[in-house]
Every structure is written in C-alpha cells, then in structure tokens.
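ARCHIVE CARD
CATEGORY: sequence design from structure
SOURCE FIELD: tokenized fold
FIELD CONTENT:
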C-alpha cells in the first residue's frame, strides 16, 4: 500500500504521480515491487528493499547519499498481547519523508491523525520537522508499551509473593506455569524494546552527527531531548530485565519448594505406614508359639501398638514443622 499523509486532509492512496502533489510524507506499507517503483518515479529517489532494511550493520542502517539520508531500525509491534518485530525504513530528503514498513504501527497512525487534524505546529513541507516528530512519536509509543509491561510485572510480582491467606490459591501448578509463561513473554518484550530503542537512539545520533539539521537549533535541541528520553527508557528496560530475572528465580524457587513439600509428604506417609505394616506382618504370622495369641487383650494390644506407631512419628514430624500449622 502506498499512502500520502497530507497536513489538514485525510490520508489517501497514491496510484499516480499526481496523487503525491503537495505532500511531504509518503508511506509505503508492505509495499509491492510496483509500489516501490512508483514511489521512486514520484520522488526520483532510489528506495531500499526489505532485505536491505533487515541488515544489522550500522553502515547499512544509517548512511547518506548526497543530500538524502537513509535510515532503518527494527521496531517492536505489540497488539492484542502479540509481540512481533519488523524492519522500518526512513528516507529523508529535502522534499520528501518516505517511510517503508511491513506492519501497522500505532505511532505512525497517531502521527497520521495529528497531520490530518492539522494538530501540528510546523509547515506542510518541513521534512526535518516531520522526521523528528515521527521519531518522537515512536519513542512515546515505546514508552507506553514499557509502562504496560511494568504493570504486568507488578501483577506477576503480587501473584508470586502472595500473602499467606492467598498462597495456596496462587501457588498451584497451573498458576505457576502461567506465571512462567508471562515472565518469558515479558523477557522477550523487554529484549525487543531494547533493540528498538537502540535503533532509534542510533538514528538520532546519526542525524546529529551528520549535521543534517545544523542550522536548526530547535531540532538539535529536540534530538538531544529525545536522546535523553531514550537513555531513561533504556535504564527502565535494564531495571525490568533484572526484575524479570528476579521473578523468574523466585517462581522457580517456589516450584522447587512445592516439589520438596510433596516429597516430604510422601516421606511422612511412607514412614508412618512402615511400622504398623511391620507389626501387622509380625502378628499375622502363623507360629505355634506366639504369647500374644493366648492373651485376652492381645488383639487390642496389637491394634494399640500399631496406632501408637502411627501417632508417634506424626507427632515428631509435627514438632519439627514438617506439616500443619503450630501457630493456630
């Protein structure tokens, strides 16, 4: 899809060169080869293909040809709790801002609505302002995703470290499995966001070092502010990464404790059952001489002895705190 984003007017699709008149931002969404060629014919520029946008070398992601700057970065997409990362390209020329992307992004849609509503304070043909505004919108969207991820981790933390009353309910196998799954998703998300922030930060540094906006002090200031925002978000991502690892260790620790408790219960049950089984086996033997057979209360003596052999280890285990709640 080949779209034009004019200021003060709704977006429209470009099917001919006339559709791109008086438009500074051209947007290619999952473009076909024909659409890319049409964009090249309209702008007179050479546009990168997807394989070029997916290159990981810095020299392939940020470079300049004459007065045209080519930029690309991986960008995380989080919609309906589904996490994906796609390459996004930007071509900044004196007359055009051209974006190439292979998924829909909330940041692009937000900026498109701002332009359509004329809710911007820059001119129609001001490409540098468009580029900086788009980068700022992307950073704001990444910050929103981080905030949601932080709330998710807080919820997981309350689940893992539930109070004593809720402990049995939240520490069953299904809840712990779900917790591990959520922690894995949070770890993937923080890693993807870190990669996206790194890409945006390198774009900002490249634009600053390239002196593309050297006569625009306000834009240089906004680039510096954006760099500080990205740095603060990177610190937040680092903190989230540590928290994810901490919660993962805690969850695995609780799983290990539950497994130990299960083994402890099996040990208690097996130990308690061994002695009465032994006594029942002894008094079930058919020997001719067995003094208890002649006792009037021999049967009750044997039953009492077996009951005592059950209660004694139970009492010992209870005193050691292996089961039960002695504080109640």
């Amino acid at each position: 899809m080949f779209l034009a984003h004019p200021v003060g007017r709704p977006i429209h699709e470009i099917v001919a060169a006339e559709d791109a008149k008086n438009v500074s931002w051209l947007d290619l969404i999952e473009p076909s080869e024909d659409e890319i060629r049409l964009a090249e014919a309209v702008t007179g520029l050479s546009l990168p293909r997807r394989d070029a946008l997916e290159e990981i070398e810095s020299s392939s992601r940020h470079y300049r040809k004459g007065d045209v700057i080519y930029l690309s970065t991986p960008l995380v997409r989080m919609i309906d709790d589904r996490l994906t990362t796609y390459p996004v390209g930007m071509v900044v020329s004196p007359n055009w801002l051209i974006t190439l992307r292979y998924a829909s992004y909330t940041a692009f849609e937000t900026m498109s609505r701002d332009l359509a509503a004329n809710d911007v304070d820059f001119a129609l043909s001001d490409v540098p302002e468009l580029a900086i505004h788009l980068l700022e919108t992307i950073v704001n969207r990444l910050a929103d995703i981080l905030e949601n991820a932080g709330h998710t981790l807080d919820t997981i933390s309350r689940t893992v470290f539930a109070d004593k009353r809720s402990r049995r309910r939240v520490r069953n196998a299904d809840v712990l499995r779900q917790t591990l799954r959520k922690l894995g998703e949070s770890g993937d998300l923080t890693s993807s966001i870190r990669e996206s922030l790194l890409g945006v930060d390198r774009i900002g540094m490249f634009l600053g070092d390239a002196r593309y906006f050297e006569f625009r002090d306000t834009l240089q200031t906004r680039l510096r502010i954006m760099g500080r925002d990205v740095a603060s978000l990177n610190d937040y991502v680092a903190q989230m990464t540590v928290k994810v690892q901490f919660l993962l260790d805690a969850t695995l620790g609780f799983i290990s404790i539950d497994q130990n408790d299960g083994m402890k219960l099996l040990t208690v049950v097996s130990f308690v059952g061994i002695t009465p089984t032994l006594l029942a086996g002894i008094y079930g033997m058919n020997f001719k001489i067995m003094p208890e057979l002649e006792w009037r209360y021999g049967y009750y003596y044997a039953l009492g002895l077996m009951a005592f052999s059950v209660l004694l280890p139970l009492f010992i285990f209870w005193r050691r705190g292996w089961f039960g709640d002695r504080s109640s």
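CARD ANNOTATION: DSSP finds nine helices and seven strands in the chain. Strands lie at 2-4, 12-13, 25-29, 62-65, 68-79, 82-92, 97-101.
SHELF: design records, drawer C
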